[in-house]
Amino acid sequence: MSNEIAYQEPWYSVADSEIGTKLSAQLIKEIGIKHPLHTKKFKTVARRHDRDDLLVELDNDNNRFAVVHLTYAPTPAEDGSWPKVEFYKTAEDFTVKRLLPDIQEFK
Would the pTM count as exceeding 0.70? Predict the structure, then answer.
C-alpha cells in the first residue's frame, strides 16, 4: 500500500482525497487505447507539487506503482506515447529509484 512510502517534498500524498480523485479523472481522460495503463485499475496516491507528475497505485499488476506525467491535452495521444509513464515493482523500488533522487534534486 502507498502508506509504506514516507513522502517528502516535492512529493505529497493525495490518497483518499478529493484532489486524488480529480487527478485520477484527468489521467483517465489522457489514457488512449494504446497507452500502457489503458486497461489497468489504479488510484492516484501522490503528486509531485512542482511538476505534473502523479504516483498511481496499480491493482493486480506485476508493477505496484507507476509515475505518470500529466499533459492536460484535450485528447489522448493516438500512439499511446503520452502521458509518459514509469513503472515500479514495489514501494521500495519507487522510493530508491524516484523519490529519493527527486528529493535531492528539489533541495
Answer: yes
